[in-house]
Each structure stands twice: as C-alpha cells, then as structure tokens.
Amino acid sequence: MEVLCSLYFLIITVTTGACDIVLNLTLREEEPVSTLVGNVASLSGLQKNMTPEVFQSLRYSFLDQAKTDDLFRIDNEAGDLLTNAVIDREKQCGFNQDCLFKFDVAAHSPVYSRFEILSVRVTLTDINDHMPTFPSSIVNKTLSESAVIGTTIQLDEALDLDSTSQNGIQSYTMITADSPFLFSATKTSEGVSLQLKLKSAINRENIDHYELIIVAVDGGSDPRTGSLTVNVEVVDENDNSPQFYRDVYDVSLREDRDVGFQVIQLTATDKDIGANGQVAYKFNVRQSFLAEINEYFMINETTGKITLKNKLSQNTKKSFNITVDASDQGKPPKVSQCIVRVFIIDFENNKPVVRITLLSGSTGAISESSSVGTVIAHVTVEDSDSGSNGIVTCQIASDHFQLQTVLNRGYIVVISKPLDRELSDKYNLSVECSDQGLPPLSTLSTIVVPIADVNDNAPLFYKTVYQASIRENNAFGDGVTQVLAKDRDHGQNSEIRYILPLESKEKLAINEDTGVITANYRFDRENESSYSLLVLAVDKGDPALTGTATIQLTVSDENDNKPTFTVPMFQFFVMENMGPQLKVGSLSASDLDEGDNQKILFDFHPNFKNLPSSQMPFEILPSGSISTRRDLDREDRNKYTFDIVAIDQGIPRLTSTSRVVVYVADQNDNKPFITFPLFSNQTVSVSQLAKIGTIVTQIRAYDLDETGPNSQLRYSISAGNEKDVFSIGETSGSIYLKRTYEITKNTPFKLRINVSDMNVSHMQSSFQDLTIVLTLPPPTPQVLEDGGTKNIIITVAVVILTIVLSAVIITVIIILRRNDQKLLQSKGQDNLVKTMYSVPPLDGCSPPSLDKNPSDKVTSIVDSPRKKKGVSFTFEEENTQIFYSDPMDQGQRGSGSYSRPDNSQILNSLFVDGLGRSQYKQQDNMSDSSGEVTASDSGRGGSDLDLSMHLSKSDERHPRRTFKFRRNPDQGLHRNQYENINYVNTHDSRSDNQREAIPPRPPRLSCNSDNELQFHSDDSQTNPSYV
C-alpha cells in the first residue's frame, strides 16, 4: 500500500479528504473465487485520522461497478476486496507485460456524514499455467540419402500462451542421441528459427528412418515443456548395384537332359528399394560365343532361372562360360555380373560327390592374420561307382590354399600364402574331384571363404599435402578446407575420426566426423603468409592406428596496408635552364601487401593536380619519376614545394601523402650588371693635386645569380690605363689614384672597366667605359686695382636684384599655393604634390586638381631625344594600378596588373629606397664629382636629376618606360589616396641583361590634363633612368 499524500480534514457537515488515496494491490492469476485481494479499510489508513466510532461506521462500495467487469466484489462492512471469478491474465490482458485493474471504492459513513474515495490499483501477475505447444506434435520430413553435409530442415517454433517473458519459452533442445543431425535454435527479428542440420552422411540401406524429439522449455519456477516428434524418412538413391551370391557358378549338365530343364537358379539382391532395387537378368551381349549360348540356353529376366532351350547333341561343346548381367531399374541403372560355367557330362557314369566343410563355424570367416598352414576346411569325397570309376582324386584351384590328404578321411584345406582382406575380402574355394572312369567324371565344388578383418592398416589420406588458402583478417569459423582419409580395413577398424595436434589447434579447428577444417585464429598475412600444419586421422580399431597429412595453408592478401614512403619528405636538386623532360628524381614507397595491393602508382595530391606549367613545372609518371615540364629559372623561383600521393591498386585503393621539395640550383646565366659608370654618366674628374691613394670613384655592379662564385664579382681595368695612373680594387671596385702624373692641361683617361663573376668553368663578364679627367688646379684670381671698386658695386647690385626677384617669386608661389589649398579643402581632397612629396609646382605647370574629372591630368616629361616605350603608373578612380606598355612587345606578352597590399611601402620602395643594389654612397671626397655624378659630365646627362640606375651596355637600345599613377577620387585628403598600386616587372625575358631599376630618390612631377602623374625614363641608348 502506498499513500501518496497526507489527508487534511475540515470541520464541516461532510468531511472529505484533500487528495486521493491510492491503494496498490497484487493478485496472482487463476486464484479461486473469493480470494482475498486486500482489506481496503485497513490499508487506506483512514483509522489514523478519525475516531474508532467513525471508522467503524464506514461502509465500502464500488463507485462504478462496470469498471470491475464482475471480477471483484467488496465486503460492505469489513472492506475486504475479494475475487468474484477465476481471472485468466492472458484473457484479460493478452501478452501485455503489465496487467492492471483500476477502480474507485467509496468509503462513506451514513452516521457521521464522512465520505472518502479510495483509488484501487490491482496488478494481476502471471503464473506459469501454459506449456509450450508446437503447431503439430508430429512432423514428417524427407531427406535424400545423397544430401550433402550441412543440409538443413526448417521446423516451426513452439508457442507459450503465458503473457510474460519469464514464463515464456526459454530454450529448445533435442534429446535424441546418436543422430546424424545437429539442432539449433536462433533468435531472429520474426521469432526463433529452428533448424536441423545434417552433420554426417546418411545411408538409407543402413538406417532408413530417424525419429528426433525436440523439447521446448519455458521459464517458470516450475518449468513446463512441450515436445515435437520429427520423423525424417531417408529417401532412397540408386547407390547400390545388384549383388550375386557368387561371382562364379559351376554347373554340370548331363547331355541327355530335356528341353526346359533348369540348369541353375541365379539370384542377385539390391539393397535399394523400389525401382532402384528391382533386378532384371540377361545374358551379356558382349561375351564370346553368344550365338551358341542363345541356341542352347535361355534366361528368365525376372527370376534369373537359366533353362535348356534346345536338346544337346554329341557335337555340342563340353563346357560353356556364360556371363549374366543383373541390372536394377534405377536412372541410370547399375549393373553387376557373374559367370556360370556349364560342364556337359556323359550320363552313363556317376560323378563324385564333393562336400566342403569350413572349420570356422557358421560365419565361415577366416581372420586375415591367420598364419600359413592353418587348416580352414575339410573336404569329403564320395563316389558310388566301383572299380576305376570309383577311384577319385581331387585338386584345388587356388593360390592361397592347398589340399592335404587325410588317410581315409578325405582332404583338408590349409593356408599356403598370407591372407590380406584389403586385397580380397573373400576367396572362391573350388575343389574338383575326378574319377578314373572312361570317360572320367568330375565334380567341381566351390564355396566362398570370407576373410575377417584385422586392424592392420592405418588411415590413409587421399592427399599427403593439402593446399588451402584463407583471406587475412578472417572471422573465426571461416572454412579452410576439408580433409578425407580412407582405411582399407573393415567395420569399426575403418571408422575414422579427424583430430589436430596441439600446435595446429592454435590456428585451426576440425570436425571429427567430416574432416571440415575451420579457422580458429585471425590470420595476418603481413606477419606470416603461410603455415604448415599437421592433421591426423585415427581409426577406431584396437589398437588405434593413425595417418598423417600436411596442410599447406596460404594466407591470401587483403588490401589493409597503406603505401609507406621510404623517407618522410623527398628533396631533389635540379639545375636551372636545362629544358623540359629533365628527370628530377624518383619517388619510392613500399606496401606490405602483395599482388595488386602492393603495386603503387604515384601522382600529385589533388590540391596540386591540373595546375598550369607556370605554377607547377613538373610532371609525375605513375612509376614515381619526376621530370620538368619547362625550363626553370632560379632567379624567378628557387624552390618548389608540393604534395604527392602514393596509391596502391587494391580494392579499395589506399593512399598515403608525402611532400616533395625541389631546389633549383643556380647556373651562371646572368652577366654582372654595371650600375656605374653608365653611358649617360661615365665621366668623373680628379684634381692633379690629389694625394696618391685617393679614391677617385667606385664602380657599382651586381649579379642576379645565387650567392657564391656566380654572383661574387671581380673588378679590373682592361684598357686605357697604359700610363698606370690608376688602380682598381679587385673586389671593392674602388678606383684609386696610383701615382702623380704631370699635365699641362685637363687630361682625360678613357678606361675600359671589366666586371666578371668568379665562376671558373663558365665565367660571365660585362664592361663599361669610364672617363677620368685629371684636372689642373684653378688659377689664382688677379685683383685689378683700377676696376676693383667697380666690380664690387656690380656684385652688390646683382645680389640685391637677386634677393628682390626671389622675394617676389616666393610671394607669388605662396599666394598661388594658398588659393589652391583653399580650393582643395572645400572639396575634401588633397593636393597630389603636397601629399606625395611636398614640392612646389614646376615652372609652367599648375598643381594637379584632384577634385576634377579623372580626365584632368598633369603631365611632365623629361626631355629625351626620341620617344621610347614606357611604363606608366596611373591612379584610377576605383583603385590604383600600374600598367605596363611596350610597343615592341605587343603580341608577345599582354598587359597585366598586380595588387600589392601595402601601398605606402611600395611607394617608398619605388621612389626612395630603390631596388636591391641601387643604394649609393658618396665615397669620393677628393674629386670634383660626388659618387657617380660630376659637374663635368660627358654631355649626355648626369646632372642631379640623373641619379638613377642603369643596366649594362647590352641594354643600351631598350626604349623608354613610363610609370603612371592614377588617383582614386573617392578617397579623402589622407596619405592613402593612392592605394592599390600594382607594379609590373618590366624585365624582358628575351635578354639576359635586362632588369628593372628603381630611382633612389623621388622623381620630378609633371602634369597633364588627365589627372595623372607620370614618371618618364628617357635614354637613347640604355635602359631607362627614372628621374
């Protein structure tokens, strides 16, 4: 009983509880009528909350009698809940696991006006009152005697009407022993599958019927059972041939016998039944002298009786050998034969009577272990004739037996050679006795001597070595092979059971009766690919003999191993400029599997497949050979990294991934680039009074090849220094004043400067001319006494005029710039020149108006003798791009644009820092020039505005480049208004000596009408110089 809540009472006219009282009761099914379920009065606990008088006055009744289904009744006064019928749980609740009856009982007092509702829950429990029942208690099944081992017979499961699982069917078992069947009960989604499985061969001729008892047991405390009788009738197969009692029958026939005389009655039996056991007889059609046999003899096909067909004559043969066939009616029929030897005798003399008696008793069997000389039979001879007709001599026709005379007692038959039942299980013992009459008469008596078996042969397997295979990762119980052995002995001595030695049991299991071998171990070919295991065949003789065979078990491969690369990462080195189809190296991997599972093909990882040769200049053959698809240039890229996969050819295919790093080795394919002197700036000067050892200037050059001998430079003067006035540092490139040289006027020395790398085998070199002017010191000024005062006045006037003009110009510039700034600020834009370099407008140009249309451009072009191709940097409205234009390269390479992330750094590198080796230092403090720039130029440039980088002489003919920067008008007045600048490399791959060069200082600005800022390079003979 369970009280779910406390009771609260109010003092009013009618008192009721604040909440329901629930009583949980339990009742077993099948209880008799009036069984007490429980007393609701005492179980309710009402007596705790009221006086005894009130509690005793309570009366109890059902609130709704229909809910009890007439199964219960209640005592009105005492409150006892009783059964009103025998309740069957299966009838009320079926197979539900829970069987619950719910109803309410009213407890009310007619005296004290009390009323309570008691909720009653009666749980009906199951008892084991039903036994398991099969659909039919007897089942008849048929099975052919030729059925293979493993053939199954399906049976219907039993049914238990008890509704709970614990009282339901728990197990099945077969109680019949010594049957060739295995019984199994397997749970399935639809119930239980009952099967009989044939575990050994059956022979109808031995047993034609099996009666099997299957028992189902339920799970009650007192388990109940139900049984099923399975009658298995073995269906006959034509597996037996008819058998004659003898192989040879000898018959004597008097020549005076009448037609129809029975010569012999033949009988052959067949162990089969039905048509398979019906025997028909006939003369063999392939025997010799068939025509004569059919002339004198006939045979009854049904009975096997041979009778005389025609009267014998004196010219008839004296003997006939008749071969008789006995065939059954099976499909196909089986045939056996016997030979009937008919001897024709003269009827006027009596032949001897011969009786052979075996000494081995009723069975007549002789042990094959009997020794030579053992007596096996006694021969008795009688002849009723007298005289020579009664004198009889006997002889035996056998290789294993001989006759010995017993004085006046006939003959005994003794063993003359060892017997072997396995060679012959019976011997036809024929004794022929002849009298000495004229003609002599003889009697041939033949008996069959059976040979009893001795266990003298061990079982012999059909194969001494069984080749078997099993796949690795097999399941326990997987079939491996079946071994079969035979024993030449008979009966129990030939019954064989198969066993495995202890070392073989670790890997295999065997069925003792069938020889079926299954796996008892999960094989792994990679650990061991083959096993040599023994299996034994033991007969049931006494003592038992054993035969042995070997199982050569091969574990076949499954693709369960991924390819493994021989190294964690492949590194190869390849020389640049070696052309396509150059072998870089070979990939190597191994796979522990075998066959196709071991064959490995190589390919790019999917992330690197189908890339153009510009991104992936290599190809991989399936064999793993890596070769180039195009020329490699170390200066473009010195290392390539990509992922490759090794794929085996198994099913499913397994792959492994590794990484390949190809380093491009340097080839000395770049000449040194001389950046000073240049054709536009190749003159320096030094005073005649400079000290010996003074640095006149320094040669500037670099080599794009890899660091090492290919890029280490050596400087020399190859011509023009015949006076030995100058020397050059071999590694530094500094030119020194070597000695004092007397001159009467400014004297130029045209030196041929040679710069070469240090590659011994393939040296690259460049040269350039440098003119050094050895200058006289300036003359001492002479003061004119007469004109001294006049010169001073002129000088002062010029200075004053200069100051006034400068002040006016500065004032105009300030006013113009202030007006421009006001205009730009009103439109939220900044002055391009102020933003970039903060330089004043050039003469003849207005500051660029960045707030106008994109077509408003300001352009300034440095004077050049002729127009060349150019590179322009253009600031567009959307973003800023650098466009490369080359009139000479049209049709060979297209224009391109490239995005750079940090524009301020790019501008700084473009106009301030320069590129690579473009940094210059002023090391010449003694000459009239500073660095590479002098006041005494060659006449082709070289002023302050010509501080630029120049390439070697081979680049002289390259036309001019132009860089355009286009403004983005959507951006305000801040430093990033020229963002997204893309720079196009102007290096022409057709020349080994061409490289882009960036000026080391900001260029001069020029204005045009398209709001563009252009930087032009112009040199009529060399690569561009950017101003």
From TrEMBL:
One of its GO terms (cellular component) is plasma membrane. Keywords: Calcium, Cell adhesion, Cell membrane, Glycoprotein, Membrane, Metal-binding, Repeat, Signal, Transmembrane, Transmembrane helix. Residues 843-863, 882-904, 921-1027 are annotated as: Disordered. Residues 895-904, 921-937 have a biased composition (Polar residues). GO terms for biological process: homophilic cell adhesion via plasma membrane adhesion molecules. The chain crosses the membrane at residues 792-816. PROSITE patterns: CADHERIN_1, CADHERIN_2. Residues 967-977 have a biased composition (Basic and acidic residues). GO terms for molecular function: calcium ion binding. It is found in: Cell membrane. It is a single-pass type I membrane protein. Residues 1-18 form the signal peptide. Its main location: membrane. InterPro entries: Cadherin-like_dom, Cadherin-like_sf, Cadherin_CS, Cadherin_N, Protocadherin/Cadherin-CA. Residues 19-134, 135-244, 245-354, 366-461, 462-565, 566-679, 678-783 form the Cadherin domain. It holds the Pfam family Cadherin_2. This is Protocadherin-20. It comes from Magallana gigas (Pacific oyster). The lineage of its organism: Eukaryota, Metazoa, Spiralia, Lophotrochozoa, Mollusca.
